[in-house]
């Protein structure tokens, strides 16, 4: 707890009590340009957040995998050119067509919410805000801490594959930290946000090297627990033929198909049972990293606080506000390119 509190306490922020008011208030610094309940405060779409929560709940009741899909979508949006909804844009060369973004899902959730909001208060609520709010709501349903989402983002008008710089999931600790720092985030944000891998799945191709040929040794990654390595080799047989299938495996077999958000992700790092290389690497970071991993593994409450802070920081990366960007009518198209003009 020592390190976390030293990070949280000096923050002069506003205290906001959480939605669903079941948990204690979290004190968060207000991001520079965003506002708490923007659409209510400006009296432009009072119940926008209620409509979003309702739609997310409907989808989640049908398919719990929307939670990790939305988290991944938000990460892909915010880390590349900022939280401007650019990942949602269609187009032959758009961000969503980049190799790193293959297999993204949950676009249908965002599109449905947008459709509902366009009926209720047309041209008001940005796709970038919808993505941030919907992700929070889906995480909350999966058991993650509710956290305040500041709003007032506007939507970007550009999206190109070339700007997608999302790193491989096998990068080293130092490379991962440098990447997070290049986006204005810090070590605690990285350790915390990687906890999103508490849920969701990955393709076998991203862990093949760890299972069969770590750093061209012809052996498994020595940092991987042999029990889980054996299990994963059964699920991910060696790829010997072109066109062989590339199955999906759970990032955290412990939460698996029940899609519960827990801190077991951190416990599994300590027992060498992380699936992705970048996750297991946290065990080989500096002492502050280890302190955070142990702190989060030991207590959900510390993780909850840190998670609220880091999600808020990620949601503030390079946001567009004021007269920047636009409010899209359809999240898949800029208004100028919208084929239906609605
Ligand atoms: C490997 O995982 C098991 C649980 O599956 C755990 O009991 C054991 O301590 C782990 N081994 C190491 C070296 O972390
Ligand atoms: C890291 O922790 C180890 C063992 O707890 C200690 O010996 C070492 O001095 C620490 N390193 C730093 C840089 O604090």
TrEMBL record:
Its EC number is 1.11.1.7. It comes from the Eukaryota. Pfam families: peroxidase (PF00141). Residues 1-24 form the signal peptide. Keywords: Calcium, Disulfide bond, Heme, Hydrogen peroxide, Iron, Metal-binding, Oxidoreductase, Peroxidase, Secreted, Signal. Its cofactor is heme b; Ca(2+). This is Peroxidase. It comes from Xanthoceras sorbifolium.
């Amino acid at each position: 707890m020592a390190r976390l509190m030293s990070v949280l306490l000096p923050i002069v922020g506003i205290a906001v009590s959480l939605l669903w008011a079941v948990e204690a208030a979290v004190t968060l610094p207000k991001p520079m340009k965003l506002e708490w309940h923007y659409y209510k405060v400006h009296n432009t779409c009072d119940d926008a957040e209620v409509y979003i929560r309702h739609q997310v709940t409907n989808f989640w009741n049908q398919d719990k995998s929307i939670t990790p899909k939305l988290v991944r979508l938000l990460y892909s949006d915010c880390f590349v050119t900022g939280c401007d909804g650019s990942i949602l844009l269609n187009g032959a060369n758009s961000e969503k067509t980049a190799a790193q973004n293959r297999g993204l899902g949950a676009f249908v959730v965002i599109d449905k919410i947008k459709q509902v909001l366009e009926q209720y208060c047309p041209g008001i609520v940005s796709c970038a805000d919808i993505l941030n709010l919907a992700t929070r709501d889906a995480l909350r349903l999966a058991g993650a801490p509710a956290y305040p989402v500041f709003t007032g983002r506007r939507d970007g008008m550009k999206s190109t594959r070339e700007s997608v710089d999302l790193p491989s999931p096998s990068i080293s600790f130092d490379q991962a930290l440098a990447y997070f720092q290049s986006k204005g985030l810090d070590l605690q944000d990285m350790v915390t946000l990687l906890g999103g891998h508490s849920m969701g799945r990955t393709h076998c191709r991203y862990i093949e090297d760890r299972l069969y040929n770590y750093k061209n040794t012809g052996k498994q990654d020595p940092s991987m627990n042999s029990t889980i390595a054996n299990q994963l080799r059964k699920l991910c047989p060696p790829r010997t033929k072109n066109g062989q299938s590339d199955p999906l495996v759970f990032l955290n077999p412990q939460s698996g198909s029940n899609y519960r958000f827990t801190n077991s992700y951190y416990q599994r790092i300590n027992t060498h049972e992380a699936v992705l290389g970048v996750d297991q690497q946290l065990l080989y970071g500096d002492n502050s990293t280890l302190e955070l991993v142990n702190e989060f593994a030991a207590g959900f409450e510390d993780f909850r606080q840190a998670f609220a802070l880091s999600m808020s920081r990620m949601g503030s990366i390079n946001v567009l506000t004021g007269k920047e960007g636009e409010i899209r009518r359809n999240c898949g198209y800029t208004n100028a390119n919208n084929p239906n003009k609605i």
